[in-house]
Design a protein that fits this description.
Layout (H helix, E strand, L loop, with lengths): L2 H14 L7 E6 L2 E6 L3 H21 L9 E6 L7 E4 L4 E5 L10 H16 L6 H10 L2 H8 L3 H15 L12 H9 L5 H6 L11 H16 L3 H8 L8 H9 L3 H19 L14 E9 L2 E8 L5 E6 L2 E7 L2 H8 L8 E3 L2 E9 L7 E8 L5 E3 L6 E7 L2 E7 L5 E6 L5 E7 L4 E8 L2 E7 L5 E6 L7 E5 L5 E6 L3 E6 L6 E6 L5 E3 L7 E7 L4 E8 L2 E8 L11 E2 L30 E3 L9 E8 L3 E9 L5 E10 L4 E11 L5 E8 L4 E14 L3 E15 L4 E15 L10 E12 L4 E13 L5 E12 L19 E21 L3 E16 L4 E15 L6 E11 L4 E11 L2
Parallel strand pairs: 2-3, 3-5
Antiparallel strand pairs: 1-2, 1-30, 4-5, 6-7, 7-8, 8-9, 10-11, 11-12, 12-13, 14-15, 15-16, 16-17, 18-19, 19-20, 20-21, 22-23, 23-24, 24-25, 25-29, 26-27, 27-28, 31-32, 32-33, 33-34, 34-35, 35-36, 36-37, 37-38, 38-39, 39-40, 40-41, 41-42, 42-43, 43-44, 44-45, 45-46
Helix pairs in contact: 2-3, 3-6, 4-5, 6-9, 9-12, 10-11
């Protein structure tokens, strides 16, 4: 058996041995293939029923003349992440499992309506002749080109409008959804359309997301210019009269998007001002955005989460107003406070701080966990559970109470001991989410969402009775239950803004405690001080406030009695169908079949044929829906050499994590075969991310005069500490890669060590990046990259390369450059370069200028052209270099 045959046979045996792994099933529909694990068949049937209805409704608003082809949708229920997406390369939709508090919607219902809208949006390109032509020539690149011409505020905003109009929930009904945007517009001079849409990286607030801006802008345009505006405009994208999205909208409205955005702002801010009870001005100076969220208070001691634009999140302990302790908090934990969810994530008891930390599986891309992590009073950090599926927790004198949401979409409350040992479990309705837990004695209070009766519930942990509702949600978002002897305090947005409410525990009479112009959140009762601390949102972030709260049975004089609220109007009220969008569809008439991994491995998504006067070639790429087998192939013919060339590369992901690699390539001069195995690993290190790669392989080169066999290895490790929201670099990042190449024929070893370091500079807009490359070469092919400043690093023996860059971002620009480019910010850097061998020393110092730009007004497509001027002392000469880096493409 030849080497080539052994190579191919080994690869095929390894792949075939894993094809039967897993228990994947599929529900097939003319518009989708819903792929799922057999353990959640009932949930999949329910989701398929809803998705079918939503897709029909979407197609009514955005019809596709050529029809909607089936989309592969995968329910990744082992992924403990609250997310989902529709993507290309390859085209598919992935839905993750962990629910998020979402305005009285069950999580898969959210994804069915939101991602279902994206599926219809993406396939609007099928009605475009130029997209069909590009797709015929290049595969999904045609669809990709179409999507790059669409602003993300339209894609996400239109889907968010659908959440609100086609369901009884959706983010458009949640007051905290637009909190940053609403407050900024009412207190500061508004940014223009381009800056609001694209940002600069250094804006007044952390960001204006495409969901919020898009919800209001898309809703305004549909209400004002007709519900079919976008359907007609999308048909013109790429046409001569409407090449850009802006031109297509202008063709139908007579105005550019910047003018339409101003019109929308005038109407929106006028409506918001009418809803306020206090007069606001936009000329007050704004200090830097910095938020303080109350977490715990007892006597003269307290703890709060602080979060700023240029500072990483920290939990700060104070005694009598003086800081006594400060610990850094994982960004993902702080996200619960700054996001639209506004849920509690940190629990403090006796100066021990705990939270649930999301962790990725070591080497599986679609598995993740939620485990308890604690920081002790002496600042020791440790994890108490391992590979659990927790979402939230509260510390109690006898340990923890936590919520679990497992891969089968079962929901439960769990009692853990103080060391993380599981003691008791209480079942909750399937696919529901419990959050904002609060304990008082044997009673556990929490908010329940995703059920038929969302609201605040109470569980008696000493009885066998199911949780009982205390406050049922009535077209409102409820959060943060806090219990005193006579009162249940919580937040509600029933008035259109989040305010603190109090309900008498016996009479159920409700009162409003605050009248915040923007929103009040996170009540914490300090019993000994008779104070209720809370976060009051202002233009410069969440500010801690307090009011007297004795806890007496009688209400205070400034409390306002709450009467039943009328149905609250939403921004897109005029777009809501007159009849309910979704009845309860049947779940029993779906045919479920086994999903074959082997039959679906071949999934070509991109191809091209290219040529010039010397050669012609074609390429093809394939990746299956479950990301198991990646294939790349090319073939061509060289006219002058009168010979053909080609390549084939394959990588197969085993369920256990390792990747099997195999490849073949033929050039004019040689043929190579290779096989190997790689194991990528990722570790969530509490305050940062570590990544590792182990790789080994064998390559055989066949040349006319000789054959060589190489054994190669790669070992890499990297760590990156979390950064502040507007910092340009991590405060600490380090990476080390070691490559070796051993020639088995000549017994010669070549090796490369590449070490990189990233540090924060003297300011959040400064950073230091350094690299040291060390090469030991025993053959003719360098392992170091060629530098445009120095000679090719092909000297035998030791070669060293060093780079040092001190980067300085000059801050926001926010300027358009014609219709294609937008200038976000500018960076300069001071550079040092060196290359040393046994016989030569080459050095250079320079200055670089790099504007950060976006293409097509699309924040997904960014570019950073760089112009550098270097002085080379050894040659006493200057040299100019230019490069272009395209990111996020």
């Amino acid at each position: 058996m030849t080497f080539r045959t052994r190579l191919l046979t080994g690869f095929l045996l390894l792949v075939s041995s894993t094809l039967s792994a897993g228990n994947w099933q599929v529900i097939q529909h003319p518009h989708f293939n819903l792929i799922f694990d057999q353990s959640i068949e009932a949930e999949a049937r329910r989701t398929a029923s809803r998705l079918a209805v939503y897709l029909d409704l979407h197609l009514t608003e955005l019809p596709i003349e050529r029809g909607l082809p089936p989309t592969d949708i995968v329910l990744m229920t082992d992924a403990h992440i609250a997310n989902g997406f529709v993507g290309i390369f390859p085209y598919r939709s992935i839905w993750y499992n962990r629910p998020a508090p979402f305005a009285q919607l069950e999580w898969l219902d959210v994804l069915a309506v939101h991602e279902g809208r994206h599926i219809v949006q993406f396939n609007q390109s099928r009605d475009s002749a130029w997209v069909r032509m590009v797709s015929f020539l290049f595969g999904e690149a045609g669809q990709g080109a179409f999507l790059l011409l669409l602003p993300d505020w339209y894609l996400e905003g239109d889907a968010t409008v659908s959440e609100t109009t086609l369901t009884e929930g959706g983010r458009g009904r949640v007051a905290s959804f637009d909190l940053w945007y609403r407050t900024d517009l009412l207190t500061q001079e508004p940014y223009d359309y381009e800056r609001a849409m694209l940002g600069t990286g250094f804006d007044r607030i952390p960001y204006i997301g495409p969901y919020v801006l898009g919800y209001y802008f898309t809703g305004y345009l549909r209400r004002t210019y007709g519900d079919d505006l976008f359907d007609e405009a999308l048909d013109d994208i790429g046409q001569w009269t409407g090449w850009t999205f802006n031109a297509a909208i202008r063709e139908r409205t007579g105005k550019n998007l910047d003018a339409l955005y101003d019109d929308m702002l005038n109407e929106l801010t006028t409506q918001w001002r009418h809803q306020l009870t206090t007069e606001l001005t936009t000329d007050a100076p704004m200090s830097e955005w910095n938020s303080r969220y109350p977490v715990w208070a007892e006597g003269d001691q307290s703890a709060m989460l602080t979060l700023g634009l240029t500072e990483r999140p920290r939990l700060v302990f104070e005694t009598a107003g003086q800081i006594t302790r400060s610990i850094e908090v994982p960004t993902q934990v702080a996200r619960h406070y700054r996001s639209g969810s506004k849920t509690r994530a940190i629990s403090v008891l006796n100066e021990r701080a705990c939270w649930v930390l999301e962790r990725a599986h070591l080497n599986h891309p679609f598995i993740s966990y939620g485990d308890i992590e604690c920081v002790e009073p002496d600042d020791r950090r440790h994890r108490l559970t391992n590979n659990d599926k927790l979402t939230s927790l509260i510390q109690t004198p006898d340990g923890f109470k936590a919520h679990r949401f497992d891969a089968q979409r079962r929901s439960s409350l769990v009692h853990f001991s103080a060391d993380g040992t599981e003691l008791t479990q209480w079942a909750l309705p399937t696919h529901t989410l419990a959050y904002d837990l609060f304990a008082q004695g044997d009673k556990l209070y929490f908010v329940l969402s995703g059920s038929d009766r969302d609201g605040i519930y109470r569980l008696d942990t000493r009885s066998n009775q199911p949780p009982a509702p205390v406050v049922l949600a009535q077209q409102e978002s409820l959060r943060a239950p806090t219990v005193t002897d006579h009162w249940l305090v919580f937040t509600s947005d029933r008035s259109g803004r989040d305010q603190l409410m109090a309900q008498h525990r016996n009479t159920q009479t409700q009162y409003q405690l605050t009248e915040s112009p923007f929103g009040a959140y996170y009540p914490v009762w300090n019993a000994s001080e008779q104070q209720l601390n809370f976060a009051d949102y202002q233009s410069d972030g969440m500010q801690q406030r307090s009011q007297t709260f004795t806890g007496d049975e009688l209400p205070a004089s400034h409390w306002v009695s709450v009467s039943p609220m009328p149905t609250r109007k939403v921004w897109v009220d005029a777009l809501i169908p007159a009849t309910p969008a979704l009845a309860e569809p049947s779940q029993s008439d779906w045919e479920v079949s086994q999903y074959s991994i082997a039959k679906n491995l071949w999934n070509p998504y991109s191809w091209a044929i290219l040529g010039d006067t010397s050669s012609i070639s074609g390429t093809l790429h394939s990746l299956d829906t479950l990301s198991k087998l990646a294939l790349s192939a090319s073939a061509g013919y060289h006219f002058e050499a009168n010979d053909w060339f080609g390549s084939l590369a394959a990588q197969y992901r085993l369920d256990s994590g390792p990747r099997i690699n195999a490849g073949w390539a033929k050039t004019i001069d040689e043929t190579t075969l290779n096989t190997g195995m790689s194991l990528p690993m990722a570790v969530q290190n509490r305050l940062g991310q570590s990544q590792f790669l182990l790789q080994a392989g064998v390559e055989q080169r066949f040349q006319p005069d000789n054959d060589d066999t190489f054994l190669s290895t790669t070992l890499s490790a990297a760590y990156q500490h979390q950064r502040a929201m507007q910092a340009i670099e991590t405060p600490l990042g380090i990476a080390e890669t070691i490559n070796t190449r051993f020639n088995l024929n000549d017994n010669e070893l070549s090796a490369l060590s590449d070490t990189r370091l990233a540090l924060a500079g003297w300011h959040s807009r400064h950073a230091l990046n350094a690299r040291l490359g060390s090469q030991w070469l025993n053959d003719e092919t360098p392992l170091l990259l060629d530098s445009p400043l120095f000679t090719t690093p092909d000297a035998q023996g030791l070669t060293l390369q060093g780079d040092v860059d001190y980067r300085i971002n000059l801050g926001p620009v926010g300027a358009g450059l014609g219709s294609l480019l937008y200038w976000r910010n500018t960076e300069i850097s001071l550079n040092g370069r060196a290359q040393l061998t046994d016989s030569t020393t080459e050095t250079a110092v320079g200055l670089s200028f790099s504007p950060n730009l976006t293409f097509f007004r699309n924040p997904v497509l960014t570019t950073s052209p760089q112009l550098s001027v270097y002085y080379l002392p050894g040659e006493e000469a200057f040299q100019v270099t230019a490069s272009v880096r395209i990111a996020n493409f």
